[in-house]
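Troubleshooting entry. The earlier prediction with fe (ii) ion gave an output that would not parse, so I re-checked the input for stray whitespace and re-submitted. Clean input:
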Amino acid sequence: MIDIHCHILPYIDDGSTSIEQSLKQLKTAEEGGVSKIYLTSHYFRGHYQYTRQEYDEKLNALRLQASRAGLKIIIESGFEVFIQPGILEDIQEKSLTLGDSPYVLIESELNGLPIDFYANVYPLLRAGYKPILAHAERYVSIMHKPSKARELIDKNIYIQTNAGSLLGFHGEKVRKTAWILLENGWTHFLASDDHARGEYGALFAGCELIGERIDKQTTELLTQEYPARIESGEKIPYSYVMVKRPHHHKKSMLRSIFG
Ligand SMILES: [Fe+2]
């Protein structure tokens, strides 16, 4: 399993506040079957703003402690980039991507995607980046109309859902929206978005539930197959749910002709 979204890197955003806390989360992740984790710290001009060197120093310090603690989980660099005018410049300058890939985890105003959202995302697409909208189910505009996620996908924006949302961590509306996204194939990644405030286990509970309510193949796609393609470079399809059209109507028509 690969987790593409968490705030386990300490001392950089509103996530982990100590190395001990980070190691505890990494250990739970590894024991539950996570083989690789992207430490996607918030990057938000004016709020969580730092140099790439500052980030790398913190990342390397944690990697060192993790290997000293005997952990085998692969720790990748990553960011959750708040979309603002001119953000492409920071993305390019500081390589605010998932590992060395062209994928960029993005976020925006939860109260509703601002009207200039697309205008600020298009420059990323034109520059060859592949944006993934983090926890789409938490946006008020998507809660009101979940098919909005499909409009985003049509504009080449991938969608990520939080495991905790499926469990109701953000309330009933978010929970329902998360399931609608999943059931319609409007999400490509399931991740923890763990902020090291409690147990890491929500990701595993979420996977279990998807297996029960949808199928195991969907769990596999969203937590292993597609996240693995971020590094391998193999294309991730924007649309992956094949709808089988019922044929009975045609058959009954033939039957009425031929008896
Ligand atoms: Fe996050």
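This one parsed fine. The chain has a mean pLDDT of 94.
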